[in-house]
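Hi U.,

Before I forget, here's the chain from the pilot set. I'm dumping it here mostly so it's searchable later in email.
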Amino acid sequence: MSLRLASGQTQAPAPLARHSHHEPCGEGVIATQDRRAWFNPQAVPIPALLHDLLTAAGPSGHEEPAAAVWREAAAKFADVHGDTLGNSFARVTAGGAATLAIFGHIDEIGVAVTHIDSDGLLAFTQIGTYDKEILNGQRVVIAGRQGPVEGVVAGGEKLHIDIGAVGLEDAAARVAIGDAGVWRGEPVELGNGRIASRALDNRLGAYVALEASRRIAEAGDATVDVVAVASVQEEQQHDGAMAAVYALEPDIALAIDVTYASDVPGGDPARYGKIELGGGATITRGPIINRHVFELLLRAAEEEQISHAVEVFTRRTGTDADDVHKSRGGVPTGIVSIPVRYMHSPGEIASLDDLEAVIALVVAFARRLTPQTSFLR
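Structure:
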């Protein structure tokens, strides 16, 4: 997406600090290669906070490393707290009588160790839903007893993880049953402002919730309170969002997530809509979406000249919104998404222009809310 200014020029995300390839591989942090080892003149720098979020492991139920990155950044401009599920909250107080909650789930898919055989090979199960076969030949990193443990998935039809152990005792000293891990897929800057990484689903949404709230706090002109929520366990049954929305009792909610791009082989624009990388923010329309929230999002995009597309879901959306909208007496809810190619793989691809479009749209939506805004249907 390109956010157009009045002059017609393109507004790109501001370049932020780079990261060293000597970053230590501590608990929950995946060491990365020097991303400038190749010189791509079309590459656009990945925002520093997003890079940190992408390189922190956080499969469902084990989100603490990623949540710690998010909370540290949020504490610079908001009141931050967490709960027993692992949800993170960052409140920007405007003294208004209404509250907007912006949900971006921070968990990712992964693996969990279920058995160690006599040769030291690890059996595993999936955390979240994906084609298990895609793991064959992939490298994984497990949060082991003493820190990260590297391994390789192999075995054809009967996959296992090989951590280089010489037997059961050696492997058991390094990992325990139930230890969780993620596949490797370090952030890479591609051409044309596009990036590839694991966990774009949904560190992008968690980043948007935080960055939009920061910009709202910086502007200081919102008339409603804004709470960014880095929800957990979305890849299970939206458990974190259900607890968070029940506790917050927001007046309005937005779920920020990723969605399937249709501009790939096998993509079908006729199914949900024409969703392309570089097409901007994707606004969802459907039964669970409050009509007035959708219309305000659409009007904000048009008035601010933010590139956008409309996606149609007539049943469940597979996002936190599925449960947020029906909490307590009902919460007027909308969904804004970032198009992603190759969902639930080590090489998901997204556009930083689309990311910026979603941030800009969320900010524009929040600034149009007042305590008197009605979403009654």
